């Protein structure tokens, strides 16, 4: 990939070839400004002394991974590509855990207090934090790229998924008004579907309970395809275990149940819910925003003979895609959203009771969790040179996470090469 360049006043210039960047660094005409994405700052040049060309940011939004590329419009050369791994599902689980802890604490401490959940209002256009985080991740990287590259336009894939057509490809007309439960109540439908018997043991003529195949505490939904019937004994025995673990000794029964369970459409729903909000947020940058459909992206990619990936899809978004793209030697930067720590000071056990108290400080000896460091360990089992992300403890023993392993390291052997910014890079 190309190297981003800033002038001595930190204004963006055209990205340069890595060989040119090495030459500038070797002759001390430039210095390293940032590691991720790699950016240099030239010490003897201003913006007025250079010619800049227009660049376009192209975005392929996804539920789990979003592809982002930077394309030089004059030459059709891709100069930067990355894939942003979102943490929306992790945020959802954290909010669920917090809600359960607060509910259990209030029921123990203040049983007399009236519930207040109906007193609160939300602004128009409000999105859940798990969805809003996806938009914020994309906006963060668009703004970062604008600071280090002369961006003049944005392209976004504005795709809409037909959820019913994903389940039934031949659906049309009035069938859109008639879902799977048309003419039924949920319990009545499940009784007919599972022949009035327990799905796990097959017992009949006993009270049957509605059971989630994938437990709600493990990310399951209330879709009828995720529901089955079970007797009280089987329901309590399964609990929130994965069904594969619960029925590991009955593979034929497991396959029969999974054959009737459909994959949840949470990814498609997340993209549908955030697409217009992302579009409006990108418009607020003041740059012209081009939109393209998913079909146009696929057609562009197929005609240009590019293999499918998240960053390649983003490169083919919209009608502005050139006929011939230069993507030689492009390796995407893999970015994972990690957040900026937690404000939770009291750490509870699995029952919700406090077990430890976290210090309010986020730094220790100049380091914080998420810093990318270079470790020079002279002796011991892990002697050598490593680069990775650290998790601090408030004692001289940090945890260093590398691609292959993690181990404890003393902070005196560490040198920070990239300050924590809420993301992890590979």
Mean pLDDT: 88
Report the top-level CATH class of the largest domain.
Alpha Beta
The radius of gyration is 27 Å
What is the name of the CATH architecture of the largest domain? 2-Layer Sandwich
Helix and strand content put the structural class at: alpha+beta
Largest sheet: 7 strands, mixed
Topology:
Layout lengths: L3 E3 L11 H9 L3 E5 L4 E4 L12 E6 L4 E8 L4 E9 L2 H22 L19 H20 L2 E7 L5 H5 L18 H8 L14 E5 L14 E5 H7 L4 H4 L4 H10 L5 H18 L5 E4 L1 H10 L6 H6 L17 E5 L8 E3 L5 E4 L14 E6 L6 E8 L6 E4 L4 E4 L4 E5 L4 E3 L1
Helix pairs in contact: 2-3, 3-9
Summarize the structure.
The protein is α+β, with helices and mostly antiparallel strands and 426 residues long. 28% of the residues lie in helices and 23% in strands.
Structure description:
This protein has 426 residues and is α+β, with helices and mostly antiparallel strands. It folds into four domains: 4-49, no CATH class; 55-88 and 129-162 and 267-337, Ribonuclease H-like superfamily/Ribonuclease H (Nucleotidyltransferase, domain 5, 2-Layer Sandwich), CATH 3.30.420.10; 180-260, DNA Binding (I), subunit A (Orthogonal Bundle), CATH 1.10.30; 345-421, SH3 type barrels (Roll). It contains eleven helices and 19 strands. The chain has helices spanning 18-26, 88-109, 129-148, 163-167, 186-193, 232-238, 243-246, 251-260, 266-283, 294-303, 310-315; strands spanning 4-6, 30-34, 39-42, 55-60, 65-72, 77-85, 151-157, 208-212, 227-231, 289-292, 333-337, 346-348, 354-357, 372-377, 384-391, 398-401, 406-409, 414-418, 423-425. The protein has a seven-stranded mixed sheet with strand order 10-7-4-5-6-11-19.
